[in-house]
Amino acid sequence: MGKVCFVFPGQGSQQVGMGRAAFDVEAGRAVFEQADRVLGASISRICFDGPDTELQLTANAQPAILTTSIALLRVLNERCDVVAGHSLGEYSANVAAGSLGFEDAVVLVRKRGNYMQEAVPVGHGAMAAVLGGEAAVVERICEQTDGIVAPVNYNCPGQLVLAGEAGAVERAVAALQEAGCKVRKLPVSAPFHCALMQPAEDRLEPELRAVAWRDPEVPIYINVDAIPATSADAARTALVRQVSRPVRWQQSVERMLADGVSLFVEIGSGKVLNTMIKRIPGEAERVNVQAPADVEAARAAIARHRA
To answer: What gap in Å lies between CA 86 and CA 152, rounded to an integer?
Structure first.
């Protein structure tokens, strides 16, 4: 019998229409109505109808993704043994683990989105995906590049993301291409998870401290350390630290596999996390819950791994 892990996607997974089918189920509708009420705006309308330009705004995308994931979690109505989330998805993981209430979470992620967007003027930062390069090579080139640039997402073997000052990212990209790496600039509005996000981290920290926290009911494998958090304080401080520090997703998955996870259930829009997990060596099964139609197969998989 293996462990079941629920994983939750982060920013970039948003797409117009997400969550619409979950809204048609009473448990999912309650989550969207709750989010609309506490935000004082219709995040459900933005999820279902867009327009895409409005959904892509960081301050909308973050609560939209969280709300969609939690609506689908409520529709699934199953328990897990451990949880994890990629960047923003760690808030969904905390809600799933019971360490953070949904209403607090959805307000926090809207503030998080605003703070991260405001930390660096548009055009002053950049991000780039590096495909096929060894992590050690990418780290060395970043260290040798003038200015602020560093790996910020360790997603899976052969896939890292850089962030930093626009000029420094350009210089690192050129050096990586010379070293034979495939690199593409990302169309993002801010350089997430790098040192330039420190002002956002400083603003978010008191907001996280001000809400109620509980010890998680199941371990949360946190981005910044790739280890399980089992206390309210560890879960909260991990969300503070992740704003300006790398997302160690590959290392988190490797640790979960080593700790006996045999099934990953990705809950939310898209399949980006299970696509990454597939590239990380291990024998775990993967299923996705993007709509109520996926629930029956997910429940069957969970039952198999509990047999």
So the answer is: 12
193 is catalytic: yes
For the whole model, what pTM was predicted?
0.97
Span 101-145, pLDDT tens digits: 999 999 999 999 999 999 999 889 999 999 988 999 999 999 999
Of the candidates 44, 87, 252, 269, the residue annotated as catalytic is: 87
Catalytic residue among 69, 86, 92, 193: 193
Kindly provide the residue ranges of all beta strands, DSSP E only, lying in the chain, ordered along the sequence: 3-8, 82-85, 125-131, 149-156, 159-165, 182-185, 220-221, 228-229, 261-267, 285-289
Verify whether residue 305 is a known catalytic residue: no
In three-state secondary structure terms, 163 is: strand
Is 235 in contact with 104 (CB distance < 8 Å)? Answer: no
Tell me the per-residue pLDDT of 165-194, one tens digit each, with 9 for 90 and over: 999 999 999 999 999 999 999 988 889 999
Q: What is the pLDDT of residue 93?
A: 98
